[in-house]
Structures are given as structure tokens and as C-alpha cells.
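ok trying this again, last paste got cut off
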Amino acid sequence: KLKEWAKRPLPDVPMHVLHGHTSPVTAVAASAELDMAASASSDGTVLLHRMTKGRLMRSFSHSCSVDHLLLTRHGELLAHGAADNVLSLSDVNGWPIRKVSAGDMPATRLALSPDHTLLFV
């Protein structure tokens, strides 16, 4: 059974245009609870913006194209998978948690278990 939660029409113009990438955007993730949007690009950057103000908060860099993003609801984990098959984990404040090699298998999708204890690659 489908439910329709809102009947508001979409605005004619965007609230904000988020700037900062020098190459095409390859992935986007957002957390309404954090008022935060993350975007990744083929230039190897991951940018964090405030959604309500459109302000750039932080940037992360990778040595190659970042293709996948996952941002947890409360910001305890920002995961980004890149073309070099390396999965980088940090918190939204920029503190690195871990880098993991996926070997010769590219990380084509990222998902988190409902209890936030398992990251699926």
C-alpha cells in the first residue's frame, strides 16, 4: 500500500546550488537530521554542505573518482567508494576511521544495516 506524505508542489527554482566540484558529480547522499548533503565527484572530492543555507562545510579528497557515498542519519559515518577500489570511512567532522581495500572487486553499491552495525559493499 502506497501512501502520499506531502502534496506540496516542487518549486520552480532550487533553494540552493551547491558549488565546489571541478568535475561532474557522481554521487549524492543527504541527512535531514544533520541538515547536511554530501556530494562526490570524478575529480576525487567529497564535499559536505549545509542544506538549509547551501554553505560548504568541509571537503575530503581521494586520489581518483569517488563513485559512491553513504552518510548515516546521525553523521557517525561517511563512507565513500572510489574507482581505485578503496573504501574510505570517516565521520562528518573529518576524523578518519578506516580505509579498506576491496581488492580487485569494485565497490558498486554501499548500504547500511538498520541498526548501523553492518556496512554492505
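PB: full thing came through this time. The chain has no helices and ten strands.
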